[in-house]
Amino acid sequence: MHSLIQLSIVVLLLPLLSFVILIFFNRRLPRRGDFIGVGILGTAFALSAYIFWSVIVQAYDPLFKITWSFTWIDLGIVPGVGPLKINMGIVIDNLTAIMLSMVTLISLLVHIYSTGYMAGDKHYGRYFAYLGIFTFSMLGIVLSDNLFSIYIFWELVGLSSYLLIGFFFEKDSAADAQKKAFLANRVGDIGMWLGILILYSQFHTFNYDEIFGALAAGKFTLSHAWLTAAGILLFMGCVGKSAQFPLHVWLPDAMEGPTPVSALIHAATMVAAGVYFVARIFVLLTPEALHVISFIGAFTAFMAATIAITQNDIKRVLAYSTVSQLGYMVLGLGVGAYSAALFHLVTHAFFKACLFLGSGAIIHAMHHEQDMRWMGGLRKPMPWTFVTFTIATLALAGLPLTSGFMSKDAILAGAIGFAQAEGGGIYYLIPVLGFFSAMLTAFYMGRQIWLVFFGDSRTHLKPAEHHAHGHDAHHGHDDHHGEEHGVHEVSWNMRAPLVVLATLSVFAVYSPDPLDGAKGWFMSMVQTPETVVGQKPLVEHTVLTEANGGNLLLAESVVHTEQQHGTDASPVPAAHGGAEAGHHSSGHTFSDPRQAAIAHGAHEAHNPAIIISSIMVVLGISMAGIVYVFRVIDPDRTAQAIRPLYLFSLNKWYWDEIYDATIIKGSILISKIFAWFDSNIIDGIVNGIAVTVRKFAFANGSFDKYVVDGLVNFTAFFVNTSGALLRKFQTGKVQTYIVLLMIAVCGYFVYYFTQLVY
Amino acid sequence: MLSLIVFLPILAGLVILAVPSSQKQIIRIVSLLAAIVQMVLAVLIWRGYDPSLPGITATAAGIPQGSFQFIERLPWITLDLGGFGPLNIEYFLGVDGISITMVILTALISAIGVLSSWTIQKQVKGYFILYNLLATAMMGCFVALDFFLFYVFWELMLLPMYFLIGIWGGPNREYAAIKFFLYTLFGSVFMLLVMIGLYFSVLDPVTHNHTFSLVAMASQSNYIKDAILGPDNVMWRYIAFIVLFIGFAIKVPMFPFHTWLPDAHVEAPTPISVILAGVLLKLGTYGMMRINFPLFPEVFQASMYVIGVFGAINIIYGAFCALAQQDLKKMVAYSSISHMGYVLLGLAAANSEGMVGALYQMFNHGTITAMLFLLVGVIYDRAHTRQIDKFGGLASYMPVYAALVTVAWFASLGLPGLSGFISEALVFVGAFSSVTTRPIAIVSVLGIVFGAAYLLWSLQRMFLGKRKPDAAYELEAGTDGHEHIHFHDWKGKLDLDARELTMLVPLTVIIIFLGIYPMPVLGMLTTSINKLVEVLSPVVMTALN
What we know:
Shape of chain B: globular
Strand order of the largest sheet of chain B: 1-2
Distance between the termini of chain A: 133 Å
Number of helices of chain B: 21
Radius of gyration of chain B: 23 Å
Helix content of chain A: 55-70%
Order of helices and strands of chain B: HHEEHHHHHHHHHHHHHHHHEEHHH
Strand order of the largest sheet of chain A: 1-2
Distance between the termini of chain B: 40 Å
Largest sheet of chain A: 2 strands, antiparallel
Number of helices of chain A: 26
Shape of chain A: elongated
Number of strands of chain B: 4
Structural class of chain A: mainly alpha
Oligomer: heterodimer
């Protein structure tokens, strides 16, 4: 076993250890064992950082990959298939190494931050245990080398998300939100599961490399539509987990959880797992599936941004912003801007975690006030929070010199390249929605910064009835009650994570050129892989319709990586066909004509994308400035003027109401009908049969009683009565006998004479 | 060995017969000892079992050496019937991978049922005698290899079950007991006819006499060509298959023969519900795997689709009915119907993944549902109600109970890491891989969502939020500043007591362990299942090889 594999197993299991220790023993440990959680995550991060260093810095090889697997389920010699085993395994490549470090780092920071934020909560120890099992499951997703194990960890993060959203389970809203999150995710999961089943039924394996190899070798016997369906169904898992339309409704409600959890799970890591998963299966997505993905992503990015501009809850704005940014990532994958999408995943994780933790600091300092309308002027009492929050905001809005600028620009450039390669038309909608959403993003973040940090405090303006709405109000911050109205900066353990995360939102971490992320290490190390499915001919590449030559080359390269599959795997040398073109925008040239065209287009579109997106961002920020800083336009009067649109946005496009009226009410109605059917029709029939049988039995019994028994009894009765009658004659008196004799003799004579007469 | 494990409970019953009925504790301890010894024996059998031998059927030359294991075979009833020839009924026991899984499950659930019976106060002596009789009959069914012997054990189960529900049950117990009894009897009457038909159609390959041996019957070469159920008599073979299937389907229970189950569960005392859901339901699907399918493989092939459809109906219909229930125990009963649907679906797939999944699901459903019913019993003991809406906020007051409920509920909804997931996943993998059942599998995945829906909803209504205004318990301020709750006339511990933990913790451990590492169970059964698949679908074999 490769030493990095061993290390990664340790990293994977450490948070599980934290969970086990804390769930059973937290009450017996000093400080409820929070130092164990922090210490374990610190160790895990240190080991991940070492893996990162070995893989990214030392090896510096775009095709680095080591795998290891073991037999988990052995089904023996299966008739018709032969020996069948289900393996579990670990894959470490550049993406894994980056994700490993990112997840453990943010988890560590959230652990540290929570020691301040959650202090005094009555389930403080349990909280850290839940963070442990979440981190374990998330690392499992990152390290999985096959569809089965990613599905397992996928559901386990769903469980930890469920537990953490409902951490304040005594509140009905939290209990509702956790259930909603789990069920919405399950809907996505069944799609993902069906996608997995399609692939398994063809290849009898769950392993990525084996599936890709078999696909490249053309062993998929079902039609192309099934393959597209598999891709879209697998993507459904992402739709659930990454809160894409139409399953996005759970994520804003998930803000019922503690704010550090929102930062870790519902902004930085778990929701990004969907994007990560789509990246893992990227090579098997057919062009048709990719089109669906890109449109869903673009629509989600746009829709969520339009909702974010009217929300008043500081966390809800960030939640919709997360949905919107996840839409960008999905869009990026859909258009084939693979490395850009993953780049955005990482940059977004850091700046959004920073924003959530910053908002947590604000909520904490404001005594659980979450409504931005009653904030204001916080830049003075909370300078650290203000500076870090602003840096992260700029990154989210996508201003130059930030990480978010580089990654978002790369996605949008990819979208332009995609629209051109697909022949324009409707496909231009995707970059257009992308750019428009960029403007909206700048607007709502400008609004948020202004409402929260600038102007004067508006706490006193809050109407009395709003006081009951503090969202995190349930954990006991008794220590704050003495200083009711003093807003002050948070303690160091909450401040330090903000600083770290804000630092990671600066361009220099990723690329030496603030205008081009492709020149940085990330996009060099995470390159778009070659597709393994049959290509649709492009307008200008009609000759290469089936692209058999390309596929053959490809099959070889996949076989090449497969050889590394095993226990003594070593780093793959960079001997791939076209991989030496290191600093091209997409890393290397593609044998697939469609991918090549998109990559070329994206490269060409780099500068236009920078210019357009910068204009959009400036437009958005200026609009926010016009409305909220200079108050040229009054936001309330504008809202009145466009009231239907305003309400449409404020009420989140009414998706919750629509789902409630159709799916939820419908399901409950069906369940009631079925239950009625069960107890009335089916049981009615059963009981009816029983009654019929009983009636028959009674009739039968009556027949038995009155006819059969009647006959018997009648015989007895007859004998009895006749006996009794006859007995009357047996009086024992001679006189009676003589009388009877005389009567008989007389009778005889009467009879005799009548015979004579006639 | 097998005779011992089968008849040990009845021996305990005889001992109890000699104990005066006032000595309740002795009666309980005798039963518990018997159950523990039975479990030890099950472990010994498991240790001594060679998983590389398939079982299922015999070759033309009789039972190959070591195919079935722990065989005990004696002539039992031998009569000369003149023109009909000799009647040979054997005392024939043995296990293969399918039955050993069920033997272990039965031993485990029986022992837990004894612990759960500890609180029974009414006519303890009679209760435990019947209970031990039931334990013997169940175990006997799983190890009998002679159809006649199987039938005797099968009928023997009815009697104690009828009285256990009818005497120790809830308010409507007589209705439930008679419904259970008649339903099952209805199924077994036809089984008797088919059994006799089979007897006259099959010859023992060694002695060339008619035989009730299931091993001989599982090999099509032993059938007389023109006998009533011989290969030539297609129509009668179909009829026999269908009536036999209905007989077993009632036990599963399969829609539309399922309505006895919710009634029986609601009325039965907790330990009997545990036995009923944990073991008895498995007899239906076990009977299909042991008798119904391998004896009529060609009819099975023709009806895979129909069986799969019924499986899907069970899954989805059961889940929706569970969603509508107000009584927690009834909800769990309908969840059983839903989960047994997965077993049917896996069997209908007729490939190794599906059948392994089905058998593993039988095991896992046994442990998980036993746990669910025990947990329902815990709250019923305290609150004397099971209405879901009469609770609320219990997680705050009974944290250990809430934690175990969460584990059990999530196991039931198929969370990965817990055993139910692996079996359901294998069922789906198998059902989807079979072209016949693929569309059914696609529809059945809805069960995953609605299964989660009713379980999470009930979890929320009972355990999360705050106490409901009309809850079955009172709030009171504790001395330590926290609020506590109080159930009327409940003197015991508020949260789980030691006895309850003794029942629940082992099940929890098994559920988690088998969810992470399923091979201890799967390793036992895969060879037999692969053999069964070969017997059932020779067509698939030739097509793919």
